[in-house]
Give the backbone structure.
Amino acid sequence: MLSERRQIVSEAERWAIWTFVALSALVVAASIFAAPFLASRRAGFAAYLIYGAFARVCHQLPERSFHLWQHQLAVCARCTGIYIGFACGAAIYPLGRAGWRMPHRRWLILAAGPMVIDWALGFTGLWENTHLSRAITGALFGVVAAFYLTPGLQDFWATLKLLRRERASTYHQPS
Amino acid sequence: MSEKMRPALIGGVLLGVLSAIPIINLANICCCLWAVIGGLIASYLYIKRSAGPVSPGDGALVGLWAGAIGAVIYLVLGIPLSLLFRETFNLFFVRLMSNVDPMQAELLRQQIEAQSRSFGETLLLSTLFALIGAIILAIFSVLGGLIAVPLFEKRRAPAGPPSSPQ
């Protein structure tokens, strides 16, 4: 039942999950900029770890990345846009939320559209996309994705609590 | 097998194997594509099998199971494969890059040579980054499982009885 799922997570827990999502997004976005900063300060190993971690999720091609302090950011321009957009979306989520509910799928598809078109036009050679076009279309998707992932993770918490409740009632059942 | 485990197993095996095989695992450089797809497929299969509407939290849970299974497969297969084929893969990548941008290929070749290490160092770093990679795979699989629900679940959950007036 929807009402049971919504009631099992308290308002305080919903705010706590939102805080966790927003702070995590901020840390990830900050580390994208921390990598070139540390590299420029000769903190080579710390920068290497950050670049190495982000290498799992991004091609990190220098010609497709922004540069700061004469070093490239930890991810490409598109990924930079996505992560910064997500951090911004997560931060402003309480202002735009509709009762902590997930929006209709059309907004996610619409938000992904420009990013997919930008990628497809560049991939096919029909149009030479730029750092700015990749970052902006990525940021648009990131902002909207935050409005799905934040209530989604709150519902995930509800699922875990229901699972724990089921297991506890199974354990305490008389044999 | 529970109704969540079979879809999770299918999604997990897919994401684990594809993330472990050299060259094919390059798709993960697009925001962990195999992990997102693995979680998405697991959640989609669960939605199709489920008698009632699936919530985003359930999709995320299936994604988590798929991610955990995939992460184990990735570690078991990926570390030995990456150590065995590291040189071959580096050579392939430099040759591929030289067709696109010879200057970039030369920079890449110099970077690879500058980073050459002893086997012990390579094993330690490969293991460390593989563990980080496994955690990232699991996280993106959860996100894939979660995002599949608004995309594919069209049924609405019953709202439940209204609260009685006091």
Observations:
- The helical segments of chain B are 5-20, 33-49, 56-100, 102-114, 119-152.
- Chain B has a mean pLDDT of 82.
- Residues 60 and 142 of chain B are 5 Å apart (CA to CA).
- Chain B touches chain A at residues 28-32, 55-61, 101, 104, 125, 129, 132-133, 136-137, 140, 142-143, 146-147, 149-151, 157-161 (CB under 8 Å).
